[in-house]
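Task: sequence design from structure.
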C-alpha cells in the first residue's frame, strides 16, 4: 500500500469521542457508532478484526511496539495516531488506551478512547514520526 500524504486526503472530525474495545490480542470486540462513522467501516466489519485494520502506513512500527509493551505491562498509553479509513482517507486522533482486568487482575482486553487533536500537535508529531520511519 502506498503512503497517503497529501493534505487533501485528510478527514477531520469534531465532537464525539471514538471508543473501541479489544481482547488481549488486539481483536476488536466493540466499537461505538462514532468509530464506525469516522473509520468508514460497519460494526460488522470491525468486530472480529484486528485493530490494526485502521493502521496508516505512515505510522512507525516502533511506536506500536512501545504501545503494546506499555499496555501489556498494565499501564495506560497515550499518543497521537494517524488512522486509515476504509475509503483511503486518513484522520488523526489523540488516543488513550487502558487495560481491562478481570477479578484476578489479569488483563483481558483493552479499551481505547480517542478525541480530535490540534493541527499544531499533528505537525509536531509528524516530524517525530518521520524521523522514526527514517531510522527504521
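Answer:
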Amino acid at each position: 500500500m502506498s503512503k497517503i500524504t497529501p493534505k487533501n486526503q485528510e478527514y477531520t472530525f469534531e465532537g464525539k469521542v471514538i471508543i473501541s474495545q479489544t481482547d488481549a490480542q488486539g481483536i476488536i470486540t466493540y466499537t461505538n457508532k462514532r468509530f464506525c462513522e469516522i473509520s468508514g467501516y460497519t460494526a460488522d466489519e470491525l468486530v472480529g478484526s484486528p485493530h490494526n485494520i485502521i493502521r496508516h502506513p505512515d505510522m512507525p512500527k516502533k511506536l506500536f511496539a512501545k504501545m503494546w509493551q506499555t499496555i501489556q505491562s498494565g499501564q495506560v498509553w497515550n499518543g497521537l495516531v494517524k488512522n486509515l479509513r476504509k475509503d483511503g482517507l486518513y484522520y488523526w486522533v489523540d488516543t488513550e488506551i487502558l487495560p481491562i482486568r478481570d477479578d484476578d487482575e489479569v488483563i483481558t482486553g483493552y479499551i481505547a478512547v480517542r478525541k480530535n487533536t490540534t493541527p499544531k500537535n499533528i505537525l509536531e508529531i509528524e516530524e517525530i514520526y518521520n524521523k522514526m520511519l527514517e531510522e527504521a
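The helical segments are 33-39, 43-46, 61-72, 119-135.
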